[in-house]
Write the C-alpha cells for this entry.
Amino acid sequence: MSEKVLHSAKVGKQLSVFVEDEPGTLAAVTNLLGEHGINIYALTLAEGLGHGYVRMVVDKHAEAVKVLRAAEELIMERDVILLELSNQPGSLGRVAGALGGAGVNLEYAYCAGGPSVDKGLVIVRADDCGKALKVLQGLL
C-alpha cells in the first residue's frame, strides 16, 4: 500500500462519562449534549461491574464539560490522538504498525465513519502522545 493513508493527526480531548449500567443512560447523556448544540464526533460505550462509561470526542469540548458537570455527571478528561485515515483496508494497520514499531503503546482505540465516507476518524489513546505525533508526522 503506497498511497497516503493518514490525512491528519493531532492531539484532542476525550470525555469519559461514568453512567449506571441500565436502560436510558446513554440516551440521557447524548440528549443532554444535543440539547446544548454539542455534536458527538466519535463515541464508545463499555460496561463495568454495574456501571458503564461513555468515551467520546465532541465538537465543543469545554462547553460539554460545563454542561455535564452542571448535570452532576462524573466525568474524566484525557488527551487522545485524533487520526483522519483513508477509509480503505489496511490503513489502520499501517498507522498502528508504525506506532508499535517505534515503541508507542496504544492503550485503546475507537472509530467513527461509514461505508459512504472517504475518510474516517480514529481516536487512539497512546502512552506517549508527543512521541506518537512525531512518528505520525512521517506518514503525513
The chain has a mean pLDDT of 94. DSSP finds four helices and six strands in the chain.
